[in-house]
Structure formats: C-alpha cells, structure tokens
C-alpha cells in the first residue's frame, strides 16, 4: 500500500494528534512492562535475577518515556523508539528464562507503535524482523514437540503484524486526508488573489499525492482555454496561461464526468462509468490516456473533472514512479469537490476587489496630478523665472540650477508613479520578478539619498504579481524612511519564505545615535491589509523593521 505525506506545518492539529498517539503508546508500554515485571517477580520457585534486572531497566525507561509523553515533549529519537522496543524484546528472549510465548505481546506492541507512527512500511519491517528474530531466538529450544508451536507463533507474528500495520496505515491516511480537506477549505491568504489561492490548493494536492506535478486545464465557451502547472519548488502564484483549443484537446478526450486512473505499466486503465457509481469501474481506451501521460512526462496519473465558476475542465496529478490506486483517484474527486466552492468564493471576491481597486486607482491618479504634480510644476516655473533674473556669475546660480533639477526629477517621478497607478491592473506582470524590481529600487535609493542597499532575496523564490507589488511597496517605504529620517547610509533588505510565512526585513546599518521606540504607520497598515504583522528591533546603532505576511 502506498504511503502519502503532507507538510506537517500545513495543519496545526497534526502535532496535537502525534502527541496523543505518543501518550497512548507510552501508556501501553508502561502497563506491559509493569505486568511482565510482576509476573517475573512472582515466578516459582526462584525468580530469574537477570531477567528481573532487564525488566526493571526497561520499566525505568518506559516510565521516563511516559512522563515525557504526558508533558508533550518532542524527543529527537522518538520516531525510532519501536526499534529500541524490538531490541529489548530480543534481550528478554535470549537472556531470561521466561517462556518465549509470554513475550509475544512485546513484539506486537513494537509493531503497533511503528504502524501508528509511520504507517504500513515501517510496521511491516518491524513485523518481518520480529518474526525472523523470534524464530532464530527460539531455535536453541527446538524439539519435535515445540517445532509446530514455534512455527505457529512465527506465522502469528507475521499475520497479526501485517494486519496491525495495515490498520496503522489506514489511520494515517485518514488523518492526512482530513488534514488536506481542512487545508483546502481554508485558503491560505485570500487577500493575495485567486492565482495565489488556486496555486496553494494545487500545491497542497500535489504534495499529498507525492506527485511530480499538478496540472489544471480550464475553459469556458467563448473565452478560450487556460492551463496552470504546479511543481515542487515553484512560485507562490502560478497564473493561468492561455492555450489553443488544439493543445487543450488531449486533456479533455475523456468522459466529462469520469474520474481517471491510469497506470502505464499495468494492463488495466480504469475509470468509473458515472461519478456516483464509484464501485463500478470499467476499462477505457488507452490511447488518449497514453497521450496525456506523454504530455505530463509521467507513467501514472489520476484525474478528476473540475467546475470553477463558468469554466470547466480537468485536474491531473501525475508522477513517474509508484502507481496510484482507485482510492487515490476517488479521493482526488472529493478534494476537488471540497476546494472548488472555496476557489469560486475567492474568485468572486478577487473580481470585486480588482474592479474597485481599478476605479480607485483612476481617481487616485487624477487627484495626484491635481494636488501634487501641478504645484510642483508651478514651483518649477517659478524657479525658472527666478533663474532668468540671476546673472550667470551670481554665486547662487548653481544652487538654483540644482534645485530646479531636483524639482524636475520629483515631477518625473510623480508622473511615472501616477501613470503606473492608473494603468497597472492587479494581475499585470510589470513587477513579477521581485528580486529585479528590488535591485532597481536599490539603485534609485543610492541616486536619491546616497544610501547603499544590499538586497538578499531567498534563492529560487518567486512571488505572484500582487504579492510582489505589495512587497516592493513595503520595501520602498522602509528605505525611504531610512533615507529621510536617519543618518544611516547603508541598508539591507532580506526576503525569506518559511513556515507558510513571507518574512521581509529592512535593516539600517551604522545609524548615528539611539533610536526611540516607533512602528512605521504606513508599513503596518499595508501589512495589516495582507493579514500580516510588523515588529521593530532596535539596537544602539541599528534598527530592523520585520514584516511577516501569512501565505
């Protein structure tokens, strides 16, 4: 049975569930050990001193692990504890004088703890090692009378261990599926737009199925077809790319209401006749599926129909290695049904916000031209008239020329900014490359304030257009504050992504004098709109403004 995984930090309840499992395992270990110790101590006619010493040491370890589990402590070796339990079992078998059958419960406990922690693969390994070790350890007492008993007990460990491991795997899969459905029902940050939301959903689905890529093909009558492709380590927001109908056709050459399961190296290519008849699978023509597999560069994929607002299409989850199962394909349909209403809601909010923002930008650009640009133009004309009255040999002539140049530069900046505000839509890709835009901003700061800025953006991190624009505005405001309100002439900008958060740090270096407590008002407002927070770290000669935005 395949084992799937999902990022532990994607669902907060995962750590709590693990802690509860560890408490259960620790309690069972302690109860079994105490019972075995009491049984060994009461053995007649004379208790085995070596065995009692080993059981006492194991009981002390079990008590310590019990106390740690009750305190919800995370131990570095916690996920390998079942191997230590198995090692103690072998010590009991080979050192003590107890009946080997009395220690079967310890073997089954080790298998149980492995299955609960890591699923079928680890549980099956423990079961196999336990059965082999039990058989070898009991060979010294081999006789015609107990040969059949040893064989039965060995088979019993294998069979029951396999069942326990399967149950542990099913429990883990159920918990991971619930975690994925919960994550899909709660978009990471709806303020960042539909592209970010859909990309986050696709990335969560891709990670859950351990897939190489997740592809979403959508189209609507009269609006053409689009495709999104999400791979590991990709950008936070993948925009929909328009494609020709001929390019989209191979992905749609399957029944509209069918859930597809394709395995190139198996004889069966299966799909259900109807989405509600999930127990009735039937073969499907392999040629269209093989063509899709070639396009996806994968040997195995699952696919489900998607309906998003007025568009419809299919989502494909593919990988080149381990085949998927029917259960995987059916769960993909459930995940899509869970995610699409949330995506439609975010798309509606995004459309409303985009239209409102576009109207507000137009009004803002006009107001900026009337209230900011026009006065500077008047100032420039006044300076030009004053300069005509000043002879060339006057000492203030160069200063007037420099002042006039600064005014013209400010007018050009204001006009450029007003034009970008009026023309840039939310989905434009004008500043999609965050690192390049920040590098240009660093050059502007050096020319304007003489401020040397070092930009440090995490390698391989790509932001969506909307988030990149917000990051650039936050950094611009922070650097302007350094240039205007401090004596610092060095700055550092760091952009990092970790633990589902985007971290922006703006430092000034070698500032003169201590800085009083403050929080930049405009940066705090921008971060609050995105659901983030601002922290200011002050030192004797430097200040760092840290912005954290959930993604």
From TrEMBL:
Residues 360-420 form the Signal transduction histidine kinase subgroup 3 dimerisation and phosphoacceptor domain. It catalyses: ATP + protein L-histidine = ADP + protein N-phospho-L-histidine. Coiled coil: none annotated. It is an enzyme of class 2 (transferase). Pfam families: HisKA_3 (PF07730). Keywords: ATP-binding, Kinase, Membrane, Nucleotide-binding, Phosphoprotein, Transferase, Transmembrane, Transmembrane helix, Two-component regulatory system. GO terms for molecular function: kinase activity. The chain crosses the membrane at residues 24-44, 50-68, 80-98. This is histidine kinase.
């Amino acid at each position: 049975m395949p084992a799937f995984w999902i990022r532990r930090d994607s669902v907060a309840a995962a750590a709590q569930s693990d802690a509860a499992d560890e408490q259960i395992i620790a309690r069972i270990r302690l109860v079994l050990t105490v019972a075995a110790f009491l049984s060994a101590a009461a053995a007649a006619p004379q208790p085995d001193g070596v065995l009692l010493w080993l059981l006492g040491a194991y009981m002390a370890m079990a008590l310590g692990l019990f106390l740690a589990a009750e305190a919800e402590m995370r131990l570095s070796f916690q996920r390998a504890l079942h191997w230590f339990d198995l090692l103690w079992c072998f010590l009991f078998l080979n050192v003590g004088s107890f009946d080997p059958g009395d220690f079967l419960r310890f073997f089954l406990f080790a298998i149980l703890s492995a299955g609960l922690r890591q699923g079928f693969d680890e549980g099956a390994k423990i079961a196999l090692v336990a059965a082999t070790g039990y058989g070898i350890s009991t060979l010294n007492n081999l006789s015609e009378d107990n040969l059949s008993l040893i064989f039965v007990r060995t088979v019993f460990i294998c069979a029951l261990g396999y069942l326990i491991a399967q149950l542990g795997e099913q429990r883990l899969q159920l918990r991971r599926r619930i975690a994925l459905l919960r994550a899909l029902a709660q978009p990471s940050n709806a303020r960042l737009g539909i592209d970010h939301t859909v990309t986050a959903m696709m990335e969560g689905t891709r990670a859950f199925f351990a897939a190489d890529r997740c592809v979403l093909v959508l189209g609507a009558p009269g609006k053409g077809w689009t495709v999104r492709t999400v791979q590991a380590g990709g950008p936070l927001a993948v925009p929909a790319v328009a494609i020709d109908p001929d390019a989209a056709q191979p992905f749609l050459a399957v029944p509209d209401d069918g859930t597809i399961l394709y395995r190139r190296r198996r004889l069966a290519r299966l799909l259900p006749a109807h989405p509600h008849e999930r127990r009735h699978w039937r073969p499907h023509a392999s040629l269209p599926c093989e063509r899709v597999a070639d396009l996806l560069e994968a040997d195995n994929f699952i696919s489900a129909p998607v309906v998003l607002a007025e568009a419809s299409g299919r989502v494909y989850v593919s990988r080149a290695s381990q085949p998927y199962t029917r259960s995987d394909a059916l769960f993909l349909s459930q995940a899509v049904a869970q995610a699409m209403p949330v995506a439609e809601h975010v798309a509606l909010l995004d459309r409303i916000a985009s239209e409102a923002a576009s109207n507000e930008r137009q009004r803002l650009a006009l107001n900026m031209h009337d209230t900011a640009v026009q006065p500077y133009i008047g100032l420039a004309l006044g300076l030009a008239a004053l300069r005509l009255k000043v002879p060339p040999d006057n000492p203030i002539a160069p200063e007037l020329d420099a002042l006039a140049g600064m005014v013209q530069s400010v007018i050009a900046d204001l006009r450029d900014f007003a034009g970008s505000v009026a023309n840039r839509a939310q989905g434009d890709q004008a500043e999609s490359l965050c690192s390049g835009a920040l590098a240009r901003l660093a050059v502007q700061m050096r020319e304007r304030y003489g401020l040397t800025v070092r930009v440090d953006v995490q390698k391989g991190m790509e932001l969506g257009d909307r988030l990149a624009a917000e990051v650039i505005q936050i950094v611009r405001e922070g650097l302007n504050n350094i240039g205007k309100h401090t004596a610092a002439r060095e700055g550092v900008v760091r952009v990092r992504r970790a633990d589902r958060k985007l971290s922006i740090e703006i430092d000034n270096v070698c500032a003169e004098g201590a800085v009083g407590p403050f929080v930049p008002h405009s940066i705090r407002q921008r971060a609050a709109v995105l659901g983030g927070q601002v922290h200011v770290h002050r030192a004797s000669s430097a200040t760092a403004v840290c912005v954290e935005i959930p993604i």
